From TrEMBL:
The active site is at 252, 307. It catalyses: oxaloacetate + acetyl-CoA + H2O = citrate + CoA + H(+). Transmembrane segments: none annotated. GO terms for cellular component: cytosol. The keyword Repeat does not apply. Belongs to the citrate synthase family. Keywords: Transferase. SUPFAM superfamilies: Citrate synthase (SSF48256). GO terms for biological process: carbohydrate metabolic process; tricarboxylic acid cycle. Pfam families: Citrate_synt (PF00285). GO terms for molecular function: citrate synthase activity. It comes from Fictibacillus marinisediminis. This is Citrate synthase. Pathway: Carbohydrate metabolism; tricarboxylic acid cycle.
Length: 368
């Protein structure tokens, strides 16, 4: 019997990433994600996904300079954002602003220069809208700050703590790419019609907006708030499990063992012990929760997922829940564009079949 949602159907061949849910592995172009986060920056990893190799010093400097040159929002994009309804959610703002980028220069085939442009724009769009809604002036990007550190700077208007910038950079590296997920599939389907990169990215953003894909970790933040207020992780978590409540941030629909992104993020945060109270609280809560889950649900393999530590990072750097999915989008733009570039190299339009399950009318039925 056919699975709904194309589950188990191979839609494309890719050399960009490999998600091995059974063994808890995530590979970027064959390299384990844990090794990537230990050794490389956001810019180096983005270059790796786009080009298939890591940059030398000159190539890295060129990429950083290109990202910096493309951070500036045009007056037309600012005007569009300014005229959007005040009650429009931030993901819809990003989708609309990116869509407005679709000038004639974005034709078939897509280019890495276009990918860099879109990647550079998203953080500026997020910051411009966020600060505008808060009644604050837009903060101009700083030339001396790299991509992630600058993102935090233009959001908050202050130079971020090193520990916060490093934690967010690790998270954003881990979410650059994750196989043929719903938003990546959307991007590749749009690209397969030989549409432009902006259209493909807009499709992906619209898909990411859905709560089943890019939903905010508000449940994890609520758990951490509750633990912080009680001052006793074991009591809070034990009571929840006794009541049969689900622990947010534990378990994953793909990974049947430890989420490798959570493992990599935890390893980085362990190096920051004592530098931020929320990161310390998250580590303590995770240790307690995993032990109690093994006690209450033996054999279920419920481990921490990346959302748990993402929530801890967002809490530490004082980002509102509304910024979680947009920040996810800012990083995933690299993966989407890498897939569109790959699609364009050996393109075939996607045209899946459907199974008709409606009534079987005859000609006589139609006449009557």
């Amino acid at each position: 019997m056919m699975e709904k949602g194309l589950k188990g159907v191979v839609a494309a061949q890719t050399s960009i990433s490999h998600v091995d849910g059974l063994n808890g592995k995530l590979l970027y172009r064959g390299l384990d994600i844990g090794e990537v986060t230990k050794r490389y920056s956001f810019e180096e990893t983005a270059y790796f996904l786009w080009h298939g190799k890591f940059p030398n010093e000159d190539e890295l400097n060129d990429l950083k300079n290109e990202l910096k040159r493309n951070r500036k929002l045009s007056s037309s994009i600012k005007e569009i954002i300014d005229h959007l309804p005040k009650n429009m959610d931030l993901m819809s703002v990003i989708r609309t602003a990116i869509s407005s980028e679709g000038s004639e220069e974005y034709g078939w085939k897509p280019t890495i220069a276009q990918a860099i442009r879109l990647t550079a724009l998203v953080p500026s769009i997020i910051a411009y809208r966020t600060r505008s809604m808060e009644g604050k002036p837009f903060v101009s990007p700083r030339e001396d700050l790299d991509h992630v550190e600058n993102y935090l700077y233009i959001i908050n208007g202050t130079t971020p703590l090193k520990a916060h910038a490093e934690a967010l950079e690790t998270y954003m590296i881990l979410t650059l790419e994750h196989g043929m997920n719903a938003s990546t599939f959307s991007a590749r389907v749009t690209a397969s019609t030989e549409s432009d990169l902006v259209s493909a990215a807009t499709s992906a953003i619209g898909t990411m907006k859905g709560p089943l894909h890019g939903g905010a970790p508000s449940g994890v933040i609520a758990l951490l708030d509750e633990v912080a207020e009680a001052g006793n992780p074991e009591r809070v978590i034990r009571e929840k499990l006794v009541r049969g409540e689900k622990l947010m941030g534990f378990g994953h629909r793909v990974y049947k063992t430890l989420d490798p992104r959570a493992a990599a993020l935890k390893e980085r945060l362990l190096n920051m012990t004592g530098k931020d109270q929320w990161l310390d609280l998250a580590l303590e809560t995770e240790r307690t929760a995993v032990a109690l889950l093994h006690e209450f649900k033996p054999g279920r393999s419920l481990y921490t997922n990346v959302e748990f530590y993402a929530a801890a990072i967002m809490k530490a750097i004082q980002m509102d829940d509304e910024l979680f999915t947009p920040t996810f989008t800012a990083s995933r733009m690299v993966g989407w564009t890498a897939h569109v570039l790959e699609q364009s190299e050996d393109n075939t339009i996607f045209r899946p079949e459907s199974v008709y399950i409606g009534p079987a009318h005859t000609k006589e039925d139609v006449k009557n």
